[in-house]
Each structure stands twice: as structure tokens, then as C-alpha cells.
């Protein structure tokens, strides 16, 4: 309705505003509003058009192009995380306000990147039509037929289950290492390894996703199952930083592939012409899961704080959810054969 470029620029401005406002009051509830709600809305407006535009511009090598395009988040995890100990000390001195707001100009630089993306079609004159309300236009643009697509619904449920635990390792890797008696100065390298391996996973799995002999859905399922297994084994890594880096790298590589392949598999299910609507609905499932998953893990860790491994059950449960999210996708080819859709591409997975 408004185009990928305009929406992404607005999202960058909104996210920058949220981070900038967070400097004025060092209060967790204020952060929920500024960073959580305002920043979250901004990032959502940036993320969806960025993913959709890559798929629209690239036909033959869309997976590889998408892997490169989204590898920047892995770079951020790898380079910015070592600052965390100093940031925590600044928080204690309430100097974090300036630190958090310093992210605002970084986010606003997305305006430059989004502005240079050329439109795929030339500008054309449009005749005036009766004006409609903003929400009326949104409802008109939504394709409710997606909710009748059982393969898409199953794919959304799978992403919900996966997203319940995907932030667990990112948010609690340091706490898990601390509970496991890993040397403090070495703990930073654990999440750094997630970022580095995530970059490799996004690019390599994106490259594999463009090979004709690779089944997108099967590769996607493998990344989910490996991510879940990495989450499950994390509490058993002991006090050695090497073993923690091992599970973190395995998770980072496979989860990076998951993020790369998500829109690719979605196109196979609903078709490229419905990608924007379908991906928006999918992000709703993912966002809700991420919003409730991390607090539940934290609450479970506190509940089991007297145990030798307080993170054992949270990691086992949410890791199993990720494995389950991959396993249930084996049903998609059967659902598509049962009720074919004109916009769907057959996805054949050998169930063995």
C-alpha cells in the first residue's frame, strides 16, 4: 500500500525515537514503553519490508541474498556484546541513559540504507479515489484466505513453538555460564560465538538453499531440530567455556539458517504474491511467542534456583518445543497434496 522503502524509513525513525526517549528516565517500566513497545513497533516496520523487498528483487538466488542481507544482526551480536560488563556498571551508576540513547543514531542510519533502495517499477500517475480510513485500508489489504491455508497455519504454529525458546540462549547464556561456574572473563565469548556462527549459518545455509538439489522445507526442518538439540544440551556443558562455545556455535549456525529460510519456505507455501501478508501474520505469531517465552524461562529459573542446575528444565522444555516445531513440519507436503492451492508450490519431503 505504501511501499517497502517508505515503511522501512518510518520504522527506522520510530525505533530511533524509542531508544532516544529511553535516556530520560532510568526505570524498567519506562523502558517497557520506549524500548519495548515503541522500539518494537519500529523494528517490526523495518524488518518486514526488508525481508519482502529482497525476495522481490532476487529470483534465482533469493536465499543467498537474504542470508547476506540479514547477517548484519550476527555482526552486531559479535561486536557489541563485549561491552556488556561495562554497560552493567554504568547502569548501576544510572549512566546507562546516554548509552541506550546512543543506539538511536545507529538505528536512524537505516534511513540511508532504505532510501537508496530503488523502486522496482517507475512512478505512475494515480487517479483520485474515494478516501478511506487508515485502518479501513489495512483491512482491505489483508488476505484472510491465508487463514484457510492449513499448511500456512501449521507453519505459523511451528514458528510460534520455535520462537518460544529462540531467545533463551541469547538472553540467558551468560546466566547459564555463571551458574555452571564458567570463569567470568570468558563468559562473553559464549554469546560472541553465537553471533559469529550465526553470520556463517545465514550465508552458508542461504547458499545451500539456492541449490536445485536442496529441498527448502527439509533444510528448514533440520535447522530447527539442530537448534532445539543445542538448547537441550546446553545445561550439561559443565564449567568449561569450550563446551559452552560449542553448543552456542551450533545453535548460532542452525538458528541463522532458520532466519534465512523462513521467508523462502513461506514463498513455497503461499506464493510470492502473498508473501507480504503471510509474513506479517507470521511475525505476529513470532512476536507473541518471544514476548511470553523469555519471562517464563526467567520465572522457571527463579523457581528452580535451589537446584544444582536451575536452568535444566527451562532449557529442556523450550528446546523440546523447538525440536517439535521442526518435526510437525513433515506434515506440510501431505497437507498441500490433500488441498492444493493455485499459489502454492509443491514441497516434497521424503519421510523416512
TrEMBL record:
Membrane topology classification: Multi-pass membrane protein
GO CC terms in record: membrane
Q: Where is the Major facilitator superfamily (MFS) profile domain?
A: 151-352
Name the Pfam families for this protein. MFS_1
Q: Where in the cell is it found?
A: Membrane
Asked whether the UniProt record includes Membrane among its keywords, one would answer yes
- Please state the protein's primary subcellular location: membrane
- Membrane-spanning segments: 6-22, 29-50, 151-170, 190-209, 216-236, 242-267, 279-300, 312-335
Which of UniProt's keywords are assigned here? Membrane, Transmembrane, Transmembrane helix
Single GO term (MF): monocarboxylic acid transmembrane transporter activity
Question: So which domain of life are we looking at?
Answer: Eukaryota
Protein name per UniProt: Major facilitator superfamily (MFS) profile domain-containing protein
Protein species of origin: Adineta steineri
Amino acid at each position: 500500500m505504501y511501499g517497502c522503502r517508505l515503511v522501512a524509513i518510518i520504522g527506522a525513525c520510530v525505533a530511533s525515537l524509542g531508544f532516544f526517549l529511553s535516556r530520560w528516565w532510568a526505570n524498567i517500566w519506562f523502558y517497557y514503553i520506549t524500548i519495548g513497545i515503541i522500539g518494537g513497533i519500529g523494528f517490526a516496520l523495518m524488518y518486514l519490508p526488508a525481508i519482502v523487498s529482497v525476495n522481490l528483487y532476487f529470483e534465482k538466488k533469493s536465499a543467498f541474498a537474504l542470508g547476506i542481507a540479514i547477517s548484519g544482526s550476527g555482526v552486531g551480536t559479535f561486536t557489541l556484546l563485549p561491552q556488556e560488563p561495562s554497560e552493567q556498571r554504568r547502569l548501576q551508576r544510572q549512566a546507562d541513559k546516554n548509552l541506550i540513547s546512543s543506539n538511536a543514531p545507529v538505528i536512524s542510519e537505516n534511513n540511508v540504507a532504505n532510501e537508496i533502495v530503488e523502486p522496482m517499477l517507475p512512478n505512475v500517475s494515480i487517479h483520485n479515489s474515494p478516501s478511506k480510513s487508515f485502518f479501513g485500508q489495512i483491512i482491505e489489504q489483508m488476505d484472510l484466505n491465508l487463514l484457510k491455508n492449513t499448511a500456512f497455519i501449521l507453519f505459523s504454529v511451528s514458528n510460534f513453538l520455535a520462537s518460544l525458546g529462540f531467545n533463551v540462549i541469547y538472553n540467558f547464556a551468560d546466566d547459564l555460564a555463571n551458574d555452571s561456574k564458567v570463569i567470568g572473563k570468558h563468559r562473553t565469548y559464549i554469546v560472541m560465538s553465537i553471533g559469529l556462527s550465526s553470520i556463517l549459518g545465514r550465508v552458508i545455509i542461504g547458499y545451500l538453499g539456492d541449490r536445485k538439489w536442496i529441498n527448502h522445507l527439509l533444510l528448514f526442518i533440520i535447522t530447527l531440530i539442530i537448534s532445539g538439540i543445542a538448547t537441550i544440551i546446553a545445561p550439561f556443558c559443565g564449567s568449561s567455556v569450550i563446551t559452552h562455545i560449542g553448543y552456542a556455535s551450533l545453535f548460532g549456525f542452525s538458528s541463522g539458517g532458520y532466519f534465512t529460510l523462513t521467508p523462502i519456505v513461506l514463498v513455497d507455501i503461499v506464493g510470492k504474491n502473498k508473501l507480504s501478508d503471510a509474513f506479517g501474520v507470521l511475525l505476529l505469531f513470532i512476536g507473541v511467542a518471544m514476548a511470553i517465552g523469555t519471562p517464563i524461562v526467567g520465572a522457571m529459573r527463579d523457581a528452580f534456583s535451589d537446584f544444582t542446575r536451575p536452568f535444566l528444565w527451562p532449557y529442556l522444555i523450550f528446546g523440546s518445543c523447538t525440536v517439535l516445531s521442526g518435526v510437525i513440519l513433515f506434515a506440510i507436503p501431505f497437507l498441500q497434496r490433500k488441498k492444493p492451492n493455485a499459489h502454492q508450490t509443491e514441497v516434497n519431503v521424503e519421510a523416512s
